User: Which sequence fits this backbone?
């Protein structure tokens, strides 16, 4: 079947890419690669991938092409679902015969509800790990025989086929970078803490940790870290180096790339031979010896989910991290010259005004190079969502997790802590972390040393203050 893979336009500046931890507008212009769409696209010969948000493609630009396709596969999320259904309706208005399917964590765990809410605009959803499910649909296989598929039958009833087993041989998945080369303009992808242009890929799926809020391991990837072979990863990097000579950094977007330390070290040593600059996600428990191997072989930055500076909250969310271990890890990174982008979440179970202050002070103390502060987002399919519903922490009015402009809201509230208190604490966190002499000096020094960084930080500063003004409008 002639197949279109689509990350649809929605909110202006909305980062809905499947690689992202949560889907929303960012503090500064940021776009992750649509890797979860690119992967099945790589399996379907002759397919086309359109990633509308970073390429500023409007719906009016897409709908006339609907007649050129038999099948459209859209990635969706809780915040963008209603908008994505409207996109599906627009495609069907231009081509009534087109079959439309949705993929993503939202439909993986709410297949029945999603199909009902789409009111005939979506013909099927692919649950859980969906790569080969989509390939079989595109190959024209009878839907009743496709594992992992939920679909609307001819009589309007919803059919759920048996689950598809998790993929064990990860090398069976083709490279995604040829799809990037064919269909994407990589200069349109920005992440504030990564060099530009960058490329991100997965070297494995799943995460051993059990964080109650984390979306992908609980909905699609699972809690076993299933990995590509070292050789398979390195061959893709070699291809990408030739296909994209302008790339300045590679990012491995595995939930926790350092979960398998011997493998991480083996990949690092091969990357070192290639002279590659790279970064990855890590847990704040990697020992000094492994960090040194990674750093000596091209590692520049680690993206680390600290979440909170309060030990009890870390226990509440099953983070599996001790404050003192995280502090030692951070000191080791500073000593080795490994930059850290630290992420924090406000509004997790057990949060109070005191724990928020404690987390802000702890972030200032450990001093990662840059930070991101998010609001606790209870996505369906996560344990946090179940907790929030059972305890009355989540109101129906906040269930979409963003406002009408795609800006993240504070969906959770507690008897002792209101939505508004959690929401306003984000801006205070950013100000107290960045607006201090030591941090300002470090940023200015970085700008002075690099004209490119000077232009970039000035642009990001303008975007950041615009973001804060917009947040105040949301609060008002």
Assistant:
């Amino acid at each position: 079947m002639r197949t279109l893979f689509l990350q649809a336009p929605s909110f202006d500046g909305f980062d809905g890419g499947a690689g992202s931890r949560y889907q929303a507008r960012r503090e500064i212009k940021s776009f992750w690669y649509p890797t979860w769409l690119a992967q099945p696209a790589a399996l379907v010969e002759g397919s086309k991938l359109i990633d509308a948000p970073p390429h500023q493609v409007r719906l009016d630009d897409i709908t006339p092409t609907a007649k050129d396709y038999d099948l459209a596969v859209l990635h969706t999320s809780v915040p963008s679902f209603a908008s994505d259904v409207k996109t599906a309706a627009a495609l069907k208005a231009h081509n009534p015969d087109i079959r439309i399917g949705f993929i993503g964590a939202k439909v993986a765990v709410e297949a029945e509800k999603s199909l009902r809410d789409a009111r005939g605009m979506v013909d099927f959803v692919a649950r859980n790990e969906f790569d080969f499910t989509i390939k079989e649909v595109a190959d024209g296989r009878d839907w009743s025989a496709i594992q992992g598929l939920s679909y609307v039958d001819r009589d309007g009833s919803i059919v759920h086929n048996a689950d598809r087993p998790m993929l064990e041989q990860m090398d069976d998945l083709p490279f995604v970078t040829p799809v990037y080369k064919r269909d994407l303009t990589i200069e349109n992808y920005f992440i504030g803490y990564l060099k530009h242009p960058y490329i991100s890929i997965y070297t494995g799926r799943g995460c051993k940790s059990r964080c109650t809020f984390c979306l992908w391991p609980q909905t699609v990837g699972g809690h076993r870290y299933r990995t590509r072979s070292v050789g398979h990863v390195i061959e893709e990097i070699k291809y990408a180096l030739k296909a994209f000579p302008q790339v300045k950094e590679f990012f491995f977007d595995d939930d926790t790339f350092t979960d398998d330390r011997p493998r991480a070290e083996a990949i690092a040593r091969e990357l070192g031979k290639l002279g590659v600059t790279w970064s990855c996600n890590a847990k704040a428990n990697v020992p000094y010896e492994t960090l040194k191997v990674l750093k000596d072989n091209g590692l520049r930055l680690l993206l680390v989910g600290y979440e909170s500076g309060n030990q009890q909250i870390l226990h509440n969310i099953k983070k599996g991290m001790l404050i003192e271990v995280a502090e030692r890890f951070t000191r080791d990174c500073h000593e080795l010259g490994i930059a850290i982008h630290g992420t924090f979440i406000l509004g997790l179970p057990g949060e109070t005004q005191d724990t928020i202050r404690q987390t802000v002070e702890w972030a200032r103390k450990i001093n990662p190079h840059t930070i991101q502060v998010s609001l606790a987002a209870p996505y369906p399919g996560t344990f946090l969502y179940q907790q929030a519903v059972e305890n009355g922490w989540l109101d129906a009015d906040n269930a979409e997790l963003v406002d009408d402009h795609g800006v993240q809201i504070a969906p959770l509230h507690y008897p002792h802590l209101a939505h508004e208190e959690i929401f306003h604490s984000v801006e205070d966190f950013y100000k107290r972390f960045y607006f201090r002499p030591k941090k300002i000096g470090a940023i200015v020094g970085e700008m002075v040393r690099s004209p490119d960084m000077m232009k970039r930080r000035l642009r990001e500063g303008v975007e950041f203050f615009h973001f804060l003004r917009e947040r105040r409008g949301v609060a008002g």
Summary: The domain at 191-435 is CATH 3.20.20.70 (TIM Barrel). The first helix runs from residue 35 to 43.
